[in-house]
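User: You have something folded?
Assistant:
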Amino acid sequence: MDQSLIFTKVLSKTDVEHGKAIRLKSFAVFCIPQGKHSQKFDFLDMISTGRSWSFRCSKRTNNSHPKPVLSSDWIKYVKEKCLKEGDQVSFFHVKKDGEERLQFGVQALKKSRLLGTDFWTPV
């Protein structure tokens, strides 16, 4: 399986309680058809092999500064992974061996501290 990183973000309180905010420049990779403001995408869980999550990617249409956000299964994903503010999530383009189409992937990392040193554990 080939994968390429799209972006990584340390989660904010808003990300874990309401929806995952996305930088506007990262929003372009989702290729939402012109005239639509949202679309659901399936994300392959890079840790739990075979598990898929359906996140809605959308941007505000009534704001001069649209801030894209992931919703739908996002909060369910956060709760199942026990994510909190300060944890990290990475998004990928994924191409499975023998398949032509690109998929999206998601990977969560929990922040831990041991003897004054931060380290990240995949969940």
Remarks:
- The CA atoms of residues 40 and 56 lie 4 Å apart.
- The beta strands are 2-10, 20-21, 38-45, 52-58, 69-72, 88-95, 103-114, 117-122.
- The longest helix spans residues 74-80.
